[in-house]
Write a structure and sequence with these properties.
704 residues, alpha/beta, 6-stranded mixed sheet, 24 helices, Asp_de-COase-like_dom_sf, metal ion binding
Length: 704
């Protein structure tokens, strides 16, 4: 029975997409009551990827929308930064003050002193990306967005030449699903939907490769818990076994790969014994994994982001992706290597982002280095002027960016003007000069495209926002008027007009059709998805020998940044690359900071249910390490490194192996014992070759 037939007359079901920073981009059915309030939120059962399943935090979205602490009015700071002294003001005065501050800053240091700063608090194209149109129109400093996808996308692109892969719904048709480096139960629940369907219907095996025994591991038929940053060693050993034992598909590689003979020779010494020393896995575990995927043609390698968030992340992604190529898994429905479909959608954002007036000579500043930038590091500033004015939308850098002490120190500068457009008084908003209240996704119009699946999905406005709350687009439009650029292309358009321009591409539906159909499937045909017409490099070959420095790609830094990190240390073939923060005598532990199940980055940390379910900030410690350090469950411990130290409660658990510490979730800093969060310990140094940060790659010491 359709859900709509069971609803009371005063409730209708409307359709949208989850706006949050997650590859699933779930299609949603949302109850809207006659009084204009939303009720239950469900996954759309008739969407072939979402398949009726969404995560619990989004299912209770009404708790967030109607939260008593939601920002409802603009405010001006009246006391010291962070003191919490605010005066309510009207929108006209707030926007006037922001524009005046930008003009004053520009008059002193030039346009590049202003840095519009944003990220993925919403994944809607219009509300997220319009800030770039204002940036380009005014020649403000550029924004190199590095914190999330760069190592993973780079590693994948190096092999295939494109960001696409086998239809993710094919997991349900696989005989072996390898979930590598993503805690899908917590972060991409639909991956589990299709993997478990394969197990129920086909008897498929589920393999999970990760660094601790997380909820996804508990669904595994084979679990491989390895040391952080050692994934490439596992992949190389599995390929060694494939060549050694006849699992390698030599005919496939002869047609589709660049140098299989060179790879085989390189892997001669990359034995399971070699990999065991690096990964901490037993030789037997490595052999069993290699044998399973080697004898199962329909092996689907679902490669996540987590294992790429190390200083060797791009190398690890490329190595893991090379394994299905050696095995020839790409040839089969339910086989191949998938990370992201972000390259398939071909939507047009040029008008939205002001690409026609973008100036390549304007400096680009690295999102992840905001602490170094705001504290005056000349290299991070690209030897340009200081940043003295910022507009921040859709992100909470004081909470989520590495090197937190530097970040906070920079934001506390008296000569820095900051305007924050937010839904809650985040810790970044708390240090702002002007705070503006922002709409949530059901209160504005937008359009979404997935990374982990294949649909373009509209996000129509379903309910009215509170009276004094405004959209991101409204803020950009009003500032453009005050800053003298409102007559430039792209300004003055509504959300709907922008969406229509984004969809004005051959092969895409118009917006009315998209609204009527609820989503549009953009998955390429089987041959294209599986690269059976050749990979996307000029020679049509998968590259076992990546061109680390010459390869182009969607995340390659602009020329005025250049290649990043220790690019000279990247290997010729897939290999373990020891550029990670290896444990040493002074720092005997490796710390990783993976997502919590009930938070999404710093979102949902404000809702009571999510906080209650997570409990408190804790660090997972193995019983062996706890005993060695006389630590009991619940004790307060200090973990630290050259960047600082954090006091936190210990959770003694077999979920982690000796030498590894796990701190799940980005809790508000104030939730920690001393008001400083886990990102005090994470570094902002660049991942080679195209940037990113090693959020899960930190050596630390531990004391009771």
């Amino acid at each position: 029975m359709n859900i709509a037939t069971r609803l009371p007359e005063n409730i209708t079901v409307r359709h949208s997409a989850c706006p949050h920073d997650c590859p699933s981009t779930c299609a949603l059915d949302i109850e809207v009551h006659a009084d204009g309030r939303i009720g239950k939120v469900r996954g759309a059962a008739d969407n072939s990827y979402t398949a009726g399943v969404i995560c619990a935090k989004v299912a209770r979205y009404a708790e967030r929308l109607y939260h008593p602490d939601r920002l409802m009015h603009p405010y001006r700071r009246t006391g010291a930064k962070g003191a919490g002294s605010w005066q309510q003001i009207n929108w006209t005065d707030a926007l006037d003050e922001i524009a005046e501050a930008f003009v004053k800053a520009e008059g002193r240091y030039g346009a590049e002193t202003v840095w519009p700063y944003y990220y993925a608090g919403t994944m809607g194209w219009v509300q997220r990306d319009s800030i770039n149109r204002l940036r380009h129109a005014k020649k403000y400093s550029g924004f190199f967005d590095s914190i999330c996808v760069n190592p993973a996308w780079t590693g994948y692109f190096m092999g295939t030449g494109a960001l696409r892969g086998p239809d993710p719904r094919e997991m349900a048709k696989s005989d072996c699903v390898v979930i590598w480096g993503t805690n899908a139960v917590a972060t991409q629940v639909n991956v589990m939907t299709h993997a478990i369907r394969a197990r129920k219907e086909r008897g498929a095996k589920i393999v999970v490769v990760d660094i601790y025994d997380n909820p996804t591991m508990k669904q595994a038929d084979m679990k491989l818990i390895l040391k952080p940053g050692s994934d490439a060693a596992l992949a190389c050993a599995a390929m060694h076994v494939a060549f050694r034992d006849g699992y390698a598909d030599r005919d496939y590689m002869a047609r589709y790969a660049d140098d299989p003979a060179g790879l085989e020779a390189h892997l001669k010494t990359r034995t399971p014994q070699w990999a065991s020393e690096i990964t901490g896995l037993s030789v037997e575990e490595i052999e069993a994994f290699a044998r399973l995927v080697g004898t199962t043609r329909k092996s689907y390698f679902r490669l996540g982001y987590g294992f790429s968030r190390s200083r060797n992340g791009a190398v690890s992604m490329h190595a893991a992706l090379s394994l299905p190529t050696v095995l020839g898994s790409w040839q089969y429905e339910g086989g191949g290597g998938f990370h992201s479909n972000s390259g398939i959608f071909k939507m047009d954002n040029r008008l939205l982002t002001g690409q026609s007036f973008a100036d390549p000579d304007v400096r680009q500043l690295d999102q992840s280095e905001v602490g170094r930038i705001l504290t005056g590091d000349p290299r991070a500033l690209r030897n340009g002027p200081p940043v003295t004015a910022m507009l921040i939308q859709n992100t909470n850098p004081i909470n989520v960016i590495p090197e937190q002490r530097l970040v906070k120190s920079g934001f506390m500068r008296d000569d820095l003007f900051v305007a924050v457009h937010e839904q809650f008084m985040t810790e970044t908003a708390e240090i702002a000069d002007i705070v503006l209240p922002a709409t949530m996704f059901v209160e504005h119009e937008d359009i979404y495209r997935a990374g982990g699946q294949n649909h373009i999905t509209p996000g129509p406005k379903l309910v009215e926002p509170p009276d004094d709350v405004r959209t991101n687009l409204f803020v950009i439009e009003e500032l453009a008027k005050r800053l003298g650029v409102a007559d430039m292309p792209g300004f003055g358009l509504t959300e709907r007009q922008h969406i229509e321009a984004i969809l004005n591409v051959d092969g895409l539906p118009d917006y009315d059709t998209l609204l009527n159909d609820k989503w549009f499937d953009r998955q390429p045909d089987f041959e294209t998805s599986h690269y059976l017409n050749g990979f996307a490099h000029p020679d049509k070959k998968f590259r076992f020998r990546p061109d680390w420095l010459g390869q182009q790609g969607s995340v390659r830094p602009p020329d005025n940044i250049g290649v990043l990190g220790p690019a000279d240390q990247l290997p010729e073939y897939p290999d373990f690359c020891a550029v990670i923060e290896l444990a040493d005598e002074d720092h005997p532990f490796r710390l990783a900071t993976p997502p919590a199940r009930n938070f999404l980055n710093s979102s949902f940390a404000e809702t009571k249910t999510s906080r209650d379910k997570e409990g408190r900030p804790e660090v997972m410690i193995s019983p062996v390490d706890a005993a060695r350090n006389s630590i009991e469950n619940g004790d307060v411990v200090t973990i630290g490194n050259i960047r600082g130290s954090v006091r936190i409660h210990a959770k003694v658990t077999d979920a982690v192996k000796p030498g590894v510490l796990i701190a799940e979730g980005i809790w508000p800093n104030k939730s920690h014992l001393d008001g400083e969060g886990i990102n005090v310990l994470t570094g902002a140094d660049n991942v080679a070759p195209f940037g990113g940060v090693g959020l899960h790659d930190n050596r630390v010491w531990l004391r009771k």
